[in-house]
Design a protein that fits this description.
Elements: E1 20-24, E2 30-34, H1 35-51, E3 59-63, H2 68-79, E4 83-86, H3 96-110, E5 114-117, H4 122-131, E6 138-139, H5 140-144, E7 159-164, E8 174-178, H6 179-193, E9 201-203, H7 210-223, E10 227-229, H8 232-237, H9 239-248, E11 253-256, H10 258-267, E12 283-286, H11 293-303, E13 313-318, E14 325-328, E15 337-338, E16 353-354, E17 358-359, E18 363-368, E19 381-387, E20 393-395, E21 405-407, E22 410-420, E23 423-429, E24 433-436, E25 439-442, H12 443-452, E26 460-467, E27 470-478, H13 484-495, E28 500-506, H14 521-529, E29 537-539
Parallel strand pairs: 1-10, 3-4, 3-5, 5-6, 9-10, 11-12, 12-13, 27-28
Antiparallel strand pairs: 1-2, 7-8, 8-20, 13-14, 14-17, 15-16, 18-19, 19-22, 21-22, 22-23, 24-25, 26-27, 28-29
Helix pairs in contact: 1-2, 3-4, 6-7, 10-11
Length: about 550
């Protein structure tokens, strides 16, 4: 059966009283909100925003955890004719000063007409809003209190979403996503995955990140299937609870980055899964960061005996500037790992790359050289995306260095990759590489090798660049442990012959990351070159 295109607010007219969103609570239970209840809350939110002076095309900033209030705030802004944008709440950042710089920059860039936050964020956001010269924020509860709903939604705005980039290369940038781009991307994902209302889904992803927002929440609500929602920190505390949800609720679709799979592998033992079944799970979308083939193998080894089909693991590729999804494996297809041509093998630093599938309908993907010419299959170059659902442009500080650009030639992603048999294989950021003996080596490839040698994700970051005219590789350790320096020296020395090798130690949690957990490599690199870590910087050499 053909899966139709659906408008962003079509679900309001047919909102079910039986299906809806279930949110994990502190009692190991779930709080259910039906789509009929949510629809009423959306129209109340729209009325409240208009009463606060929000006009057609204005921006509404949402600083909230995943909650019914967030969902109502997002769709309520659209129903009010305004453009929603989601900012990470303070919980997503370990350091208060990092959060203040991040959120303050974004508020100043988009200058929202209204800022809606949850109770725990109010004090912090109030100060940042005042510093940016904005009106005081309002909590969602106070916003909708004693408000009568609009009788019907107002016309949708031309820009349906301002989505922020990860900021791994510097400040996050606001990306303007049109109503058509958002709608067609959601339609493309539904057709790719075969989404139907009777297939439930579950997520722990943050809704300020495009994978959690567009890839999950918006897809779930617009399609109308049951969604089971956990907070990211709830998943970190108990990944087993999330796995129990997948089993007990017969979940068909979920999504997470490679980190989520590896975290489950570290925290969950085979004995913990006794009595659980994952045979209903047909789509585990894996994106947002490079996928480690060993993690896929180990994850299937853990859950496969309990019914998980290997073909349910679906590596995918996307970006904020492409609204989200660009390529993905089909359910049941089965993932594979490949290497580029021999002349480009150094790009992988000894690791093969997992295929992220083929372009979704209406999109084309090419691999291009520095001069813009298209490269044949197997050769490494920049990934360029063209077609539907490409963003209209940036807001705010569009000049921030990121390596990604929008223009007549489509989206130049700043990511390196190659193609094999129509599939896209993504290596890493072009700006996070170093040319060695005429070939590029990428920081993400070296990190993958370190993870495979036992160094946990989020505890080490690799930086590559030229420092004072000398090719340099830096291993940044967060709470270094015995043996880590020796392992890092072995890996970096093998793949960076002739380069200066350094180590930097920071406290655990001290590696600067984006709101989605990616290392902010260029920011850290600039800090290293500026001498900010001079007291903990030393030559990376074998221990002893």
């Amino acid at each position: 059966m053909a899966i139709p295109d659906r408008g962003l607010l079509d679900w309001l007219d047919e909102a079910s009283a039986e299906r809806g969103l279930s949110y994990a609570n502190r009692d190991d239970d779930w709080d259910f909100v039906s789509y009929r209840e949510l629809a009423s809350l959306v129209l109340r939110t729209a009325a409240a925003l208009r009463a606060r002076g929000v006009g057609d095309g204005d921006t509404v900033a949402l600083v909230q955890r995943s909650s019914p209030g967030f969902a109502a705030g997002f769709f309520g802004a659209l129903a009010a004719g305004a453009t929603p944008c989601s900012l990470a709440p303070p919980f997503a950042y370990q350091r208060a000063d990092d959060y203040a710089r991040h959120a303050g920059h974004l508020l100043a860039a988009v200058r929202p007409r209204a800022v809606v936050c949850d109770d725990e964020s109010l004090e912090r956001i109030a100060k940042l809003s005042a510093d940016a010269g904005l009106d005081a924020p309002v909590t969602f509860g106070a916003l909708v209190e004693r408000v009568e709903p609009l009788p019907r939604p107002l016309p949708l705005p031309a820009t349906a979403l301002v989505q922020f980039t990860s900021g791994s290369s510097g400040h996050s940038r606001g990306v303007r996503i049109s109503e058509e781009a958002l709608r067609t991307n959601l339609t493309g994902m539904r057709r790719w995955l075969g989404c139907r209302p009777e297939l439930p889904a579950a997520s722990w992803l943050p809704v300020h990140h495009d994978m959690g927002l567009v890839g999950f929440l918006l897809n779930v609500v617009v399609t109308g299937f049951d969604g089971w929602m956990m907070q990211p920190d709830d998943f970190v505390r108990s990944p087993l609870r999330f796995l129990r949800c997948l089993s007990e609720r017969r979940i068909a679709m979920t999504a997470m980055p490679n980190f989520g799979l590896s975290y489950i592998l570290r925290r969950v033992r085979p004995a913990d899964l006794e009595g659980l079944s994952f045979d209903a799970l047909r789509c585990v979308i894996i994106g947002a960061e490079r996928v480690d083939p060993r993690v896929l193998e180990d994850f299937h080894a853990l859950l496969g005996p309990h019914g998980l089909d290997r073909g349910a693991l679906l590596p995918a590729y996307g970006s904020a500037e492409a609204t989200l999804a660009v390529t993905g494996l089909l359910p049941g297809e089965g993932w594979s790992a490949r290497e580029p041509d021999d002349s480009d093998a150094a790009a992988l630093a000894g690791t093969s790359v997992v295929g992220c599938g083929r372009p979704l309908e209406g999109r084309t993907v090419s691999i291009r050289s520095e001069d813009g010419s298209e490269l044949p299959e197997g050769q490494v170059g920049e990934i360029v995306v063209e077609g539907v659902s490409i963003a209209d442009g940036y807001v705010g500080d569009a000049g921030s260095a990121s390596g990604t650009s929008l223009g007549e030639g489509g989206l130049r992603t700043g990511d390196a990759g190659f193609r094999r048999a129509g599939q896209l294989f993504v290596i890493g950021r072009l700006g996070d590489g170093l040319k060695v003996n005429g070939k590029m080596v990428f920081a993400e490839s070296l990190e993958t090798l370190l993870h495979q040698r036992g160094l946990p994700e989020r505890r080490v970051a690799v930086l590559l660049g030229v420092r004072e005219g000398v090719p340099t590789g830096v291993a940044v350790f967060a709470g270094v442990q015995d043996g880590w320096r020796e392992t890092a020296h072995e890996v970096l020395a093998e793949w960076l012959p002739g380069a200066e090798l350094l180590s930097v130690e920071v406290p655990r949690g001290g590696i600067a990351v984006t709101s989605s957990g990616k290392p902010r490599r260029r920011v850290i690199w600039k800090a290293v070159c500026a001498g900010w870590f001079s007291e903990s910087t030393r030559a990376l050499a074998p221990e002893g």
